[in-house]
Design a protein that fits this description.
The chain has one helix spanning 25-42, and strands at residues 3-9, 14-21, 51-56, 61-66. By secondary structure, the protein is α+β, with helices and mostly antiparallel strands.
């Protein structure tokens, strides 16, 4: 199964978030969106200017998800 590296970046900082084995590029993009939504749902910090970048094990860029472009999810009841 392919391995994908996830990084959180803004204009001045990069945080390596590790590697996940996922079945496809599309699954990696969906995981990046889920990670971004989790950050927004926590409500901890200002993530508007951050991006989740995904690359495959060869270093090829797979996806970028701008956290500020996502909608905060309403609280669960």
């Amino acid at each position: 199964m392919p391995r994908y590296r996830f990084r959180f970046t803004n204009s001045t900082h990069t945080s390596d978030c590790g590697v996940l084995e996922l079945p496809s590029d599309e699954a990696a993009r969906e995981e990046a969106e889920l990670e971004a939504c989790d950050l927004l749902d926590d409500g901890d910090g200002d993530w508007r200017h951050w991006t989740v970048d995904v690359s495959d094990e060869a270093g090829r860029h797979v996806a970028s998800v701008r956290i500020g472009d996502l909608q905060r999810q309403p609280p669960s009841t």
